[in-house]
Amino acid sequence: MGDRRIALLLDVVDQAFDRRAWHGTGLWGSLRGLTPREALWRPGRRRHNIWEIVLHTAYWKYIVRRRLTRDVTLAFPRPGSNWPALPATPDGRAWRRDVSLLEDQHRLLRTVIARFPAARLGAKGWRSTWTNAQHVYGIASHDLYHAGQIQLLKVLRRRT
């Protein structure tokens, strides 16, 4: 059996993303059944839509993975940073591709966490003032924050 701290961090990350949890819907569940049109809806000018949140959360999973691995060769598969631009043609195919991107980034990050040396959890992350452990539970918190945001956007859209 691996280190209990790593197992706990994996459990937190999994619950925030796609596992059953007492707090309710995680990030992956908040996307269930959404159409591209629903994902593109904005509550107001200069407000983020669900599609942008999907790309943003995928990007930050990549950043945490990069900070944990300290691998300068890693690159996010889409241009831009933090809030990557929507695809030129935001159709069903592009939506499925970007949702898959989020799932892939989560899987890659989870693999890094599972193999992470527990002795390095307290060390600072690469190019960061936060520890490696703080990055891991921070990305879980990030997922939950945006899952709640997506759930709210879905309710607001239905009321317009």
Key descriptive features of the protein:
mainly alpha, Four Helix Bundle (Hemerythrin (Met), subunit A), 160 residues
Quote the average pLDDT: 96
Largest sheet: none
Strand content: under 5%
Query: Helical residue percent?
Result: 55-70%
Verbal overview:
The longest helix has 27 residues, at 132-158. This protein starts with a helix and ends with a helix. The chain has 160 residues and is an all-alpha fold. The protein has one domain (4-158): Four Helix Bundle (Hemerythrin (Met), subunit A), CATH 1.20.120. The mean pLDDT is 96. Helix 1 (4-17) packs parallel to helix 6 and helix 4 packs parallel to helix 5 (92-115). It is built from six helices and no strands.
Write the layout of secondary structure elements.
Layout: H1 4-17, H2 27-30, H3 36-40, H4 50-69, H5 92-115, H6 132-158
Helix pairs in contact: 1-5, 1-6, 4-5, 4-6
Write a brief structural summary.
The protein is 59% helix and 0% strand.
